[in-house]
Amino acid sequence: MARLRRKACVALFLFTLFIFGTMMGLRTLKPSDGFSDLSPGFELLPMRGGKMDRRSASRDATASAGQTLPVGSKEVRPNSGSGGTVFYDVHIFYYTWYGNPHIDGKYIHWDHILVPHWDPKIASSYPRGRHMPPEDIGSSFYPELNAYSSRDPDVLESHMEQIGASAAGVLILSWYPPGLADDNGEPVEDLVPAVLDAAYRHKLKVAFHIQPYRGRNDQTVHDNIKYIIDRYGDHGAFYKFSSSTGKSLPLFYIYDSYLTPPDSWSEFLTPTGAHSVRGSAYDSIFIALIVEERHKHDILTGGFDGMYTYFASNGFSFGSSHHNWKSIKAFCDGNNLLFVPSVGPGYIDTSIRPWNNHNTRNRVNGRYYETALQAALRVRPEVVTVTSFNEWHEGTQIERATPKKTATRVYLDYHPHQPGHYLQLTRRWAEQYNKEKEQWLV
Questions:
Q1: Distance between CA atoms of residues 423 and 410, nearest Å
Q2: Were both Cys, which of 6, 169, 356, 400 would link to 88 (CB 3.0–4.6 Å)?
Q3: CB 346 within 8 A of CB 395
């Protein structure tokens, strides 16, 4: 009898443990309320405080690598391997900051530091130092291409093939001015021509994601836009957003736009500004980052053309919370702005911010990603962005990952699915998005 009781207790314990684990996994599918106390890359920075019809028009066109190509919402590419149709209203964030000894003489970014918490008392409870590639990298997942270099032509080719397989038609290239880089990287602006050429070979387009750098303001960004358009604007892979008015303009994403006051942005982005870009040869579509709710009004005052949410952690910020997208979209519609929601497959950055476990979002075998994609489709956006193709530090990548176990680490992977699972999910939803979009526009 006692033995039966023990067996019953063990069975009850295991069942309770299963239910608890299931509930913890499903918790990641729900939006959490309010604004989290942390934003990756945002926690160390202080918060400071002529429009055109931006409805896109479908257009199929081709161009040589040296021609400007106005783009619409989709383009058909030959079925080769994992290729197929790519959609220019699905954009994906892309990073070229990785390096390894074979190509670059050393590891870059894979050896990311363990970022200390800003509160010394909390920081003292967590390890310091940096990662030691190739066995120990600054990511909770491990890439199928290993700790690669972004300068490796074979890697670049593979990346374009994978992005094409996902059906995303525009890669959003993280960009710093010549000679500048993030705190953990090195300058890579000289790599832009290779990215454009590789994208062109795969019928992809390239938009630019202007990153924050020391001294960035409205005037320096104006100079950056001139530099990019003068240098790359005639390339066949340079992305331009087509409106129903017939205009075709470059599109730029401005990360951490809130760091510059709206009054300063208005000098650049409104028709009456002191150094206005409007109506000039450098006029473009400028998309700002919305983190807090008040940023809606700052973005409007600053003269931006729209807003995006970037972060793949649902509930982490006002902008990244799915339940806020309906109200943000209504605000944008009422002010002739584009709303560009950002969706991601999950989030985990504890390999570089070990104290940030509360912002982790479990992938739940793809269900978290599908929940985000469903939320985006519900607000009927003109453009959807995917965070990200290869931001491995924050675990938002859809790039192919591989199972890996070392003497000191066990990396996450996409099991029970194959390495290309998130590329396939993205394609399926991109096709669904464009199928539904055709009905919205009827």
A1: 23
A2: 169
A3: yes
Q: For the segment 243-280, what is each residue's pLDDT rounded down to a tens digit?
A: 767 789 999 999 999 999 999 999 999 999 999 999 99
The pLDDT value recorded for residue 131 is 97
Neighbours of 76 (CB within 10 A): 10
Neighbours of 352 (CB within 10 A): 22
Tell me which H or E stretch contains 285.
strand 285-289
Burial class for 62, CB neighbours closer than 10 Å (0-12, 13-18, 19+): exposed
Given a cut of 80, is residue 64 above it in pLDDT?
no
Answer left, alpha or beta for residue 203, where phi above 0 means left and psi between -120 and 50 means alpha: left
pLDDT single digits (tens) 370-421? 999 999 999 999 999 999 999 999 999 999 999 999 999 999 999 999 999 9
CA dihedral 394, 397, 402, 406 (to 10 degrees): -10
Whether residue 16 has pLDDT greater than 90:
no
Q: What are the structure tokens assigned to 227, written together?
A: 């530099």
CA of residue 20 relative to chain centroid, distance: 32
Q: What's the rounded Cα separation, in Å, for the pair 317 and 308?
A: 12
In angstroms, the CA 293 to CA 438 distance is 31
β-strand 74-75 against 342-343: which pairing, if any? unpaired
* Distance in angstroms (rounded) separating the CA atoms of residues 423 and 166: 4
Q: Which helix (H) or strand (E) holds 301?
A: helix 295-302
Q: What is the mean pLDDT of the chain?
A: 87
Q: Please, what is the end-to-end C-alpha distance for the chain in angstroms?
A: 71
Q: Distance between CA 176 and CA 283 in Å, rounded?
A: 20
pLDDT at 157: 98
What distance in Å separates the CA atoms of residue 216 and residue 35, rounded to the nearest whole number? Answer: 26
The span from the CA of 367 to the CA of 356, in Å, is 22
Assign 15 a pLDDT band (cuts: 50, 70, 90): low
pLDDT of residue 137: 98
Q: What is the secondary structure of 156-195 as a DSSP string?
A: HHHHHHHHHHHTEEEEEEEE--TT---TTS---GGGHHHH
CA distance 190 to 188: 5
Q: What is the distance, to the nearest Å, from the Cα of residue 172 to the centroid of all Cα atoms in its chain?
A: 8
User: d(Cα 147, Cα 332) in Å, to the nearest integer?
Assistant: 41
Q: Of 270, 341, 256, which Cα lies nearest the Cα of 300?
A: 270
- By CB atoms closer than 10 A (0-12, 13-18, 19+), residue 255 is buried
Please name the helix (run of DSSP H) or strand (run of DSSP E) that holds residue 107, with its range, or none.
none
